[in-house]
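Researcher: Please predict.
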Amino acid sequence: MMINNTTGNYRWAICTLLFFATTINYLDRQVLGLLKPVLELQYGWTEQDYGYIVMAFSATYAIGLVVFGRVVDRIGAKTGYTISVTIWSIAAMCHALVTSSLGFGIARAALGIGESGNFPAAVKTVTEWFPKRERALATGIFDSGSNIGACVAPILVPWLLGVYGWQAAFIITGAIGFVWLIAWRLIYQHPDQNSKLSAEELAYIRIDDETNQDLTPAEKIPWTKLFTLKPTWSFIMGKFLTDPIWYFFLFWLPSYFSTTFSLDLKKPGLPLVIVYSAATIGAIGGGLLSSWFIKKGWSVPKARKAALLISALCVLPIIGARFVSDMWVAVGLIGLAVAGNAGWSSNIYTIVSDMLPKSAVSSVIGIGGMAGAIGGVLFPLFIGYTLDFYKEAGNLVAGYNIIFIVCGVSFLIAWLTIHFITPRMKPVEL
């Protein structure tokens, strides 16, 4: 099938926009974790206080995912993304105005609501513009923005802190979202509204669809019916068991390197840059891996499961971080785990569009994202309690060791759970 290069370039340009949106999303999310040592001194936070602030974000993020998931399915990715980015950019900037733990909790809650729209809208866009054989790669590319955002933050935020103060770090990073929003509004078009998209090119986008349910506009599936489908529960459990680990990598790794290896968070942190750069490699590599398997003749379900298993095995060595005293060995082990986490993320999002019709993708992404965020609410409580307990005992490293064990085994448990619920990963028949 001959495909117009202009249209192909447009598809990847849209993917690039999704990448930058996700980069900004995680840049704004990461600022607080990098400023934690400064703010906890200024406001006298305990580890549990910080855990509650993180929990406020996770709780509203969970609720927002469900809401945005359904909203994006109804109003489309273009408008849904516009609402999401506007809310989270304003909320990010408002962190500079608060002066108490409660105020930070409220600002984080607002940020959680806004940022929850990113993944439902991004995955919806990929599902509409890419065939199944390219979706994992496209997802890996835009999802790598989460790692780039986390990678840029340890360089940008300490510089802003040192030159302008912590308030400016929130204001400047928050304002970047509005720049992206202008580009999104000017560039993005749905495939059905793109006059340059031919019937042949539209057919290519849908070439991997195994039924004709996605070839014509489908009726909206009732939200309650989604909970009766095995693919929904497969995604729910996969996200619930693994998303909290990424929250830990985002919100506590800066503090871990600071307390364990005396890393100065007021200066650009090379260890953190390396760790989050590894995540970028993992995100794109994970997407390429399943796409490569498919090109080799593997079925889509087999390719996805193989990529998920390999990603899960990459996380397991983080358990060994408890036995090392050299910071760069720890960077290597944690970097490998973060890369595995990112590779997992690239593929778990695509199993939704593999098994469910396009009209339900954002809704299920939202539901599964809510489950992951609920895990993200519970895990910080466990982390905060564990670290405070061992801090009082004078052995904070032991607290991190326990957390690393949980991180290491969670992905294998998630993979086994997904395999048990959906052993064949076939598209559902509605």
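Model: DSSP finds 17 helices and no strands in the chain.
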